[in-house]
Amino acid sequence: MTQMSALGHAAGPFSARIVVERDENGRTESASLDLAGLPRVDALLIGQPVAEVPTLAERVCGICPAAHHLAGIRALEALAGLTMLPPTAESVRRLLHHGSAVATHAGRFVSSHTEASRLLRAFGRAAMAAAGSPGHFPTTAVVGGVVAPVSAAARDELGARLGAATAAAMGLADALVADDEQGCEFRGADVALADRSGRPDLLGERLRAVTADGEVVHAAAPADDWAALIAEARPGRAAPRPYLVSLGPGRGDYRVGPVAQLRIGELTTFMARQLQERWLGAGGSARAAQAIMMLHSVEAIGALLDSSALVSGPSTTATAGVPRDEGVGWVDGPRGLLVHRYVSAADGVASAVTILTPTAQNEPWLSGLLRAVIDASPADGPDRLGLEDAIREADPCLPCGSAPPGTMDLQVDTVMIPTVARTEGR
Predict the structure, then answer these.
(1) Cβ count within 10 A of residue 227
(2) Buried b (16+ CB within 10 A) or exposed e, 178-217
(3) Are 275 and 173 spatial neighbours (Cβ–Cβ below 8 Å)?
(4) Which of helix, strand or coil describes residue 330?
(5) How far apart are the C-alpha atoms of 184 and 169, rounded to whole Å?
(6) What does the pLDDT read at residue 13?
C-alpha cells in the first residue's frame, strides 16, 4: 500500500478513537479525538512538481475536493504573482464553491430532513456541474481563471430549480434555528474569511479573527501575512494545535467553520442574515449554523445566476505579476478555513508544503466538546450518543462524521496521567 492510499485506509468507515486522560483521583485532564492514524499529507507532497500539488491534495483528502481544488489553484496563482481575475472567472469559481457548500451541508440532514436534503444536494451538484465540474474531483479552475464560462442553457436550467431550493433551504434552516439548543461554550477566537468590510465571504481574500469577547484581532488580513497570522504549536503533527500568533499559544486557540463564519460578521444575503440574527440570540449550535450557511450559499447562487459575467467574458487572464518563491491560497469551505502554502524551488518542485485543514484547526474546540460530555457522563460509562454529537458539532473531515446517529464506531480509551508527567508536560 502506498503512503497516499494509506490515508483512506487509516481513517476507516465510521470509526473513531477518543482518548480520555485522568489524574490519580479520576478527574478528567483532557479528552481528545485521536488523529494519530490520520497523517499530515504535507510531507507526501514535497518533491512533487508544484503545479501538480493541488490535484494530488484533492485526491489524498478526497472528502472536500472542491475546497482543495480552489485553495491549491489560489496558492499557485500567489506563486505566479497573479492578484486579479476576470469577473467571469471569479463568478464561475464562486458558483463551484457555493454549489459544493450546498451539497456538503445538505448531506448532513438526510436522516432528519430527507426530502429537503436530497433536493438541496442535487441542486448543489447541479451548480457544480454548471460550473464545469460534474464529477467528484473538480476540473473548473486553472491558474489565472477557469476553463470556460457557464453555458446559458446550464444557467437557465439551474435557475429553474432555484425557487424550490431556496424554499427548502429556508424551511430547513428556520426549523433548526427554532429548535436550536445551547452549544458548548468555547473561549477561543472565531476565524473565517471575509470581504474588505469584514462580512463573511467563503471565497474571500481576507482573514478575520474575533475573540469570544468580541475583540477583533484581525479585521481583514491578507494571505501574504500568513506566517504572522497563524503558527503551529506542534508543527507537522496530525493535531498541530495552530494558534493566533498575536495572542500566543493556548490563549490564541481558535475555531473555524459555520459557527465561526456566523460570528465574525454580518452575512450579505437577506434571508440567511435574518436567521443569523436569531441564531446569535438563541443556542448558537453548529447544526443550525450549517443550515444557515447552506441557505446563504443558495442565495449567493441566485445572485450569481443574475450576473452576465457568469456566462460571458474572458475566462482567464494573461497578466502576471512578479513570481514568488512562496504562495498561500485559502478558501472557507463548508467545514471551515482550508489553507494551502507552497514553497517552490527554481526547478518548479515543491520544497515545502503546508496543508492546514479545518479538522486540524478545530481540534482544540472538539477536545473541549468531548471533555464536557465526559464530565457529564454517568459513572457506569461515557455518554456515547453525546460523544457522537460532539464530533458532529466540530465536524472533522473524517468518515465517522457521516455516520447515522447511534452508529459511530467509537472506541473510548482512558489513560492515567501521573502528577509528575502532568507537571513536566506544562
Answers:
(1) 11
(2) eebeebbebebbbbbbbbeebebbbbbbbbbbbbeeeeeb
(3) yes
(4) strand
(5) 25
(6) 62
Q: What is the pLDDT of residues 297-318, one digit of tens each?
A: 999 999 999 999 999 999 999 7
Query: What rounded mean pLDDT belongs to the chain?
Result: 91
Helix axes 152-178, 270-281, angle to 10 degrees: 20
Three cell numbers at 37?
492514524
Q: Tell me which residue of 58, 64, 63 sits closest to 45, measured CA to CA.
A: 58
| Rg of the chain (C-alpha set) | 21
Strands (E), 115-272: 141-142, 145-146, 189-194, 206-210, 216-222, 230-232, 242-244, 254-255
CB 132 within 8 A of CB 114: no
Which cell is 211 given? 475573540
pTM of the model: 0.92
Distance from C-alpha of 380 to C-alpha of 73, rounded to nearest angstrom: 51
Q: pLDDT (tens digit, 9 = 90+) per residue, 90-105?
A: 999 999 999 999 999 9
Judge contact between 286 and 181, C-beta under 8 A.
Answer: no
Alpha-carbon span 116 to 127, nearest angstrom: 16
